[in-house]
Amino acid sequence: MRLEAKYNWLPSPFLSLLLFIVWLFLNNSVSNGHIVLAIILAIIIPLATKPFRTKQPLIIKPGLAFRHLLLVLYDIITANVQVAILILGPTKKLTPGFVKVPLDLTHSMPITILASTVSLTPGTVSAEVYPWNESLTEDEEPQERFLLIHVLNLEDEQALINTIKERYEAPLKEIFQC
Amino acid sequence: MFEWIISILLLIGGCFILVGSIGLVKMPDFYMRLHGPTKATTLGMASLLTAAMVFFSTTQAGLSIKEILISLFLLLTAPISGYMMIKSAIHHKLDCIERTKGIDNIEDDV
Fold first, then answer.
1. Which chain A residue's Cα is nearest to B56?
2. Rounded to two decimals, what is the model's pTM?
3. Residue A142 sits in a domain of what CATH number?
4. Most buried one in A61, A102, A119, B89, CB count within 10 A?
5. Number of structural domains chain B divides into
6. Partner A contacted by B86 (CB < 8 A)
């Protein structure tokens, strides 16, 4: 996991890229003036907000991150169809359940991304990360973290845990190298 | 031609949002109800916004891509609001239906 960026004037390259794109999208134009303004904003805003933002791990493998994004988008579409079928089908056949997924990720940012992808993908909503931060003393690192998820139709607990770990957690580990 | 695309996208979007709302009414407990709004509506909104994008791009001069930003922000906020709701439900110890598996996985609140 790397927290410090390569160049001092570009503390978080991904945030800069996002600001650049969002500015152009909001103005709905790619004229020269807007591109210059977007570049200036994309450099100044991360620099100005650097002192009060907590350090987040950098994306080490942007190509893999992009591939993972496409995979998640595809999963969101299939998730919508699957959940729609589950909702319209007989309610009595559904067996909901809570499942605890052991996490290998350590930093809060990759865990947040994982929890959000789990919420957006088939039949699962992430509910809680154990142990709570409040129950830990300062600077104490928990031995092991768990993600509690609620499943709409639980069939095979172990298979579900394996899918989440292989499909969503492993790429995140590689992207952030943690 | 474009009218067809726009109408089909609007219909798909409407259907998904309708299914999400049906889930909200039909499901027996709070935790299961949450699945409809967090998922079924994201694709619904995405197709509605794509329809808007096609409509404004064809009727006005130039491409209209602002709508991609709306879907992006929706994708960011939907899981967070779902998480906040299920977290407060667990905190209030809301009942879940009897056949729910693995209730003992929920740890006691601080």
1. A28
2. 0.82
3. 3.30.70
4. A119
5. 1
6. yes
Answer yes or no: are the C-beta atoms of A69 and A136 closer than 8 Å: no
**Are B79 and A126 an interchain contact pair (Cβ–Cβ within 8 Å)?**
yes
CA distance A150 to chain B (A): 7
Please indicate if any CB of chain B lies within 8 Å of the CB of A39.
no
Range of the domain at B55: 2-105
Rounded to two decimals, the ipTM of the complex is 0.80
B20 is a domain residue: yes
Beta strands in chain A (DSSP E): 97-103, 124-130, 145-151
pLDDT 10s digits, A74-113: 888 887 888 888 888 888 888 888 888 888 887 778 888 8
Residue A133: exposed, middle, or buried by beta-carbon count in 10 A (0-12, 13-18, 19+)? exposed
